[in-house]
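Q: Sequence in, structure out?
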Amino acid sequence: MKLPIFLRTRRWDDEIARLDPERDYEAIIFALSNHVFPFEILLAMEIAQLRTFTIPTISKLLHATGQYEREGPKRLDDTKGILSEIHRPGLESRASREMVEHLNRIHGLYRISNDDFLYTLSTFVFDPILFIDKWGHRSMTEKEKDAFYFLYRRLGELMHIRDIPQSRAAFFAWRQDYERRAQRYTSENEAVARGLLIAVQGLLPPALVPILEPAVVFLTADTGFRDALGLREPDPGLARSLRVFFAVYRRAARHVSLYEERKFEDSDIYRNYPTYPEGYDRLRLGPTKVLEILAKRGAERAVAGE
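A: Exactly. Output:
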């Protein structure tokens, strides 16, 4: 008898168990993000963006551009689109390399330290791990955690990020040390974080808008993160409600999955790009002013015959 399509099985766990995280990291992350932990990874990646703003040198640059405060929804869509266009075809594909180079050209217009690149990379490795270990229907295995490290280490190499620690443990130790040295509150941190939160609120049902900020603080349970962004704690009643909700969610998710068969990346939730209702031009993703500068430089090189 065919099982209901919403019933969680061990299919994806068993498939991951057969894979090698150093060689098959893309297949492992595909299974995790599309079938095993789709909502958790989506939430964790949004929190990862917020975490980068706890570093004043990162938020100062973003605040100066005004991208999150003035164009928050576009910045969210551009980030999701660029990452999708990098990961979907596979990092070693021509299409992915083209998008990585597009991202490198965008970053090349700014003075960004290697440490800030490294820290941003670390959020994509560790925020999903930390979130799922706390809120997932099961903890991640060491193999799954290693797959996140190997995937983003390879992306970091393609982005020409230097001195990437050569093990997951070493990278996490580096991240913790960098937070001790660099993480602190500034008004720029808070302004950029609130720009992103306002953009996310625009995607939510009205009833959920007031609880977004306290829910983020509750889910991270990280006072350094909270204080560096100037965010408020949830009141005790809301905290209790959130704790009950996620406890129920975790228990239900052990047995039920909306994406056991279909891919989360094909869902309306994931494919929602409000800035681009008719679809996007993959090489036009990014800040408008930056793309104008890059286009002008490209035209000048063409005229010069380079």
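The radius of gyration is 20 Å.
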